[in-house]
Amino acid sequence: MVKIQVEYTCSIMQGNILVIEDVKKMSDLISLYLSREGFEIKTAKSAEEGFEIIKDFQPELIILDINLPGMDGFEFLQKFRRDNNTPVLIVSARDSDEDQISGLGIGADDYIIKPFSIKVLVARVRASFRRSKDFSETRFSDNKNQENILSFGPFILNYDLCILIKNGERVRLTTKEYACLTCLTENPGKPMDVESIYKKVWKNNYGDLTTVAVYIQRLRKRIEDDPTNPIYIRTVHGLGYCFNAAGEAE
Questions:
Q1: pLDDT tens digits for range 115-164
Q2: How far apart are CA 188 and CA 8, in angstroms?
Q3: Contact indicator for 194, 211 with CB cutoff of 8 Å
Q4: CB hemisphere CA count around 97 (13 angstroms)
Q5: Strand duo 163-166 + 169-171: pairing
Q6: Can you give the chain as a three-state secondary structure string?
Q7: How far is 86 from 80, CA to CA, in rounded Å?
Q8: CA–CA distance, 69 with 136 (Å, rounded to integer)
Q9: Whole-number Å distance between alpha carbons of 34 and 57
Q10: Cβ atoms 241, 184 nearer than 8 A
Q11: What's this model's pTM, rounded to 2 decimal places?
């Protein structure tokens, strides 16, 4: 039984979360209290439905049950991790060491065993978002000359607030999408190879470099009028990607 102790509401949007849980009462409970904390919530009853929602919703955190109809949580996580680094928090009644080791081993960022305190869940969620925000706010601080705001085309990129604005409206970016954009904008007009982008954004010297192309494609969908003919994030064949602040067609 989940202990309910959160009693206040929050009107400030904190981030967006996908809850993949087939037990409606549990899904509704998690959604209720995280919504009160200021998070935007989408829910899915299965892993398959979760993948469909991800196409448009782009969650910044996924709360995942293991025992799901059809594809189970472990299978979902393995497939999801092929090209996504979005934090995943497993919430499951499966409490064996083997299950926890498996979940964390294939890519979960945290593991909570049911029954749980809602206060603990909220704290873990907030900690996940805080780690992501701390990563974004570093803004690759080795660049000492970076200005706080960059304007290009109809966009304003605010490095202090870690947000991108287009014509007065916020463009919803995931942590890694924002980090990729920041990486490129800190080197305007300079092609950056895939390996360099991967090292800066993922802070890792080893990994699947095709992940960079996946995130560049997603970023283009966010900011380019025609993602198939990008003007801001260009591909420089043989060299990588280059940010073009002027937004001029080739």
A1: 999 999 999 999 888 876 654 444 444 444 445 889 999 999 988 778 89
A2: 45
A3: no
A4: 0
A5: antiparallel
A6: CCECCCCCCCCCCCEEEEEECCCHHHHHHHHHHHHHCCEEEEEECCHHHHHHHHHHHCCCEEEECCCCCCCCHHHHHHHHCCCCCCCEEEEECCCCHHHHHHHHHCCCCEEEECCCEHHHHHHHHHHHHHHHHHHHHHCCCCCCCCCCEEEECCEEEECCCCEEEECCEEECCCHHHHHHHHHHHCCCCCCECHHHHHHHHHCCCCCCCHHHHHHHHHHHHHHCCCCCCCCCEEEECCCEEEECCCCCCC
A7: 9
A8: 36
A9: 17
A10: yes
A11: 0.54
Residues 6+ apart with CB under 8 A from 228: none
pLDDT digits (tens, 9 = 90+) for 161-184: 788 998 888 888 878 888 899 999
Chain centroid to CA 118: 23
> Mind listing the domains of the chain with CATH numbers?
15-136 (3.40.50.2300), 149-243 (1.10.10.10)
In this structure, what token pair is assigned to residue 44?
């899915």
Token pair recorded at residue 129: 């978002």
C-beta separation of 29 from 6 below 8 A = no
Rounded Cα–Cα distance for residues 59 and 175 (Å)? 10
- Can you tell me the distance from the alpha carbon of 195 to that of 180, in angstroms, rounded to the nearest whole number? 12
* Beta-bridge mates of residue 63: 19, 89
Q: How many residues does the chain have?
A: 250
Which residue carries 């198939």 as its tokens? 228
